[in-house]
Each structure stands twice: as C-alpha cells, then as structure tokens.
Amino acid sequence: xxxxxxxxxxxxxxxxxxxxxxxxxxxxxxxxxxxxxxxxxxxxxxxxxxxxxxxxxxxxxxxxxxxxxxxxxxxxxxxxxxxxxxxxxxxxxxxxxxxxxxxxxxxxxxxxxxxxxxxxxxxxxxxxxxxxxxxxxxxxxxxxxxxxxxxxxxxxxxxxxxxxxxxxxxxxxxxxxxxxxxxxxxxxxxxxxxxxxxxxxxxxxxxxxxxxxxxxxxxxxxxxxxx
Length: 227
Hints:
Helix content: 10-25%
Radius of gyration: 18 Å
Distance between the termini: 33 Å
Oligomer: single chain
Order of helices and strands: EEHEEEEHEEEEHEE
Largest sheet: 12 strands, mixed
Strand content: 35-45%
Number of helices: 3
C-alpha cells in the first residue's frame, strides 16, 4: 500500500494492475457553507513497468499510453497528467500521477453541486459524516474495470488535514491506519488528529466493494473538534 504506486490505471492490455485514488479534505471545509461547490484536487497514481517515454524517440511508452486511455475512459477529458517518473534508481517501476477534480458538497439541500468527473465529497454534517459519492455512470465504468474486465485493482486513501486550532476527533470505519510501523486494520478507528497534522486512512476491501456496488465510500462517521 505504497501511496505512490497504488494507483495503477491500465487499459485493455493491462490485466490485474493496481490503482490508488488519493483525496484530501481540510477540516475547516466540513459543514462549511462557504465551501459548497469547492473543487478539490484528487490524485491517481498509476504504476508502469515499461517506463514513461521511449529513451530515444521520446514517444510515450505503451504502459503510459494505455494508462492515459483508461483515464480518459473513466473521466473523459476531465483529468491531467501531472508527472511520470521512476520510483527507484534501477528504473524497474514508474509512477504516472494524474490530477482529477472532486467537488465538495457542504450544504444539506438534497442536491449536490455539479461535478465534471462524477465524484463528489459529501461533508455537510456537523458531526463530520463524510463520504465519497460517484455518479452512476462513473460507478458503472469503474465496476466494469474492476470486475467484468478484471484489469484494475483499486485502492483508495482518504487524507484529512486538520487545519483547525484544536484537535480533531475522528471515527473512521472499515480502514487501515498506519501506527508508525505498519498498517493496521480497523473495523472502526477512533482517535484524534492533532491540530496542524494530517490523518491518512486506507479503505478496506469492504469499503471498496461498497464504492463499486453502491457508488459510495464512507470516509468518516465523526470528524469534529475535540470537546
């Protein structure tokens, strides 16, 4: 579960590739009406085994071309290749980093702001109930690539930035959390994010199945300042 190589988006020729979607939210945006409709930048890190570009011609590699194709298939033109570089000095593995927009919904008015990518983060509850929601078209495309075509192994990381002046209480369901040595599985992680720090939470297989099947991944049940 390396943050930089879990996001592998392949196309028809890439079978069993890994992909990681990384989204980040500021605590100050939770249940904040002024943040409604705010566009957040998520990242998709795609691992390539054949490099980024041909060393002599500069033409993009087959792996990068296929990753670009799948990104277009999932998000149409609403994505941007930010970088592609080697993960190690030996050049055995490369990572393509794509930026994908996610729209924030912070008002309980039974309607979500328009999202070109089909991804919305719902954070309109004072207790800090937060979820990622996909529109049905994106959900179906994602499900097809993770199940029917069996070519995308998806992982998801939620990064919560506590930009408040006080500690943040969090209750995170069905996730893996790093304890300083390794990732530990939690049915329900309950803890604190200190002021000025971030928390990183890797989704479990159950959470990912829910995202594919229902179009929703619950990020947190509670995310609120310490009382």
